[in-house]
Amino acid sequence: MIIPKLHYISQGDSPKEHLNNIQKACSSGAELVQLRVKNFSEKKTLKIATQAREITSHFQTRLIINDHYKIAKEVKADGVHLGQSDVCPTVARKYLYTWQMIGGTANTMKDCENLLDKQIDYISLGPFRETTTKENLSPVLGLKGYIAITDVLITPIPIIAVGGITTNDVTNLLGAGISGIAVSGEITRDFDSIKTFNELLKASSTAEQRYTFE
């Protein structure tokens, strides 16, 4: 399974704003969008996810649903992203379609190792720096934190960096052994930045896979 190098995590103060931003991201060239809505009922989240699936399908953009793996299956999203307090990925894997991807959140080397045997398709490792998008933020990793982990963690599973990332950070992150990035704030502020992110990520495609396996 090929995991896109750029993930847009949806942002907005209302469901409508989330959906508008998802549409803008898709029309600006996003290959993968993660719908991340909090504090809504299951029924409301399902409605938003259904609309998000319609938008992303139109643009042939992949859609990941944050947290809600049952909704991800119901709307036939491309997968689900599970945080550390969400259901175990192995439980979600049994429930989902075989073609749906699962991403897991990590902050430490131990988190990454714990995820490796949980049938995940990518690890979202962060935060890179302070961000206002998420409450109760885990300790910030910075470039040194990523290098400390990627130097030791030998796995073909893509590592996606997340947390306050801007276009200026991409080259250094790829050099640190990161496969891709997940961005919310920077893209929401300027959807044209998707083009720049994509160019930067593809320019260093040789850095995509640090480890080769026989």
Task: Give an account of the 3D structure.
- It is a single chain.
- With 214 residues, the protein is α/β, with parallel strands linked by helices.
- It has a single domain, classed as Aldolase class I (TIM Barrel, Alpha-Beta Barrel), CATH 3.20.20.70.
- The chain is 39% helix and 16% strand.
- The chain has 9 helices and 8 strands.
- It has helices at residues 15-27, 42-59, 69-74, 89-95, 109-116, 142-150, 170-175, 185-189, 193-203, and strands at 6-9, 32-35, 62-66, 79-82, 101-106, 122-125, 159-162, 180-183.
- It has an 8-stranded parallel beta barrel, surrounded by 5 helices.
- α1 runs parallel beside α2.
- The longest helix is centred in the first third of the chain and has 18 residues, at 42-59.
- 44% of the residues are buried.
- Mean pLDDT is 92; it is low at 204-214.
Give me some keywords for this one:
alpha/beta, TIM Barrel, eight-stranded parallel barrel, 9 helices, 8 strands, disordered C terminus
Which secondary structure elements does this structure contain, and how are they paired or packed?
Blueprint: E1 6-9, H1 15-27, E2 32-35, H2 42-59, E3 62-66, H3 69-74, E4 79-82, H4 89-95, E5 101-106, H5 109-116, E6 122-125, H6 142-150, E7 159-162, H7 170-175, E8 180-183, H8 185-189, H9 193-203
Parallel strand pairs: 1-2, 1-8, 2-3, 3-4, 4-5, 5-6, 6-7, 7-8
Helix pairs in contact: 1-2
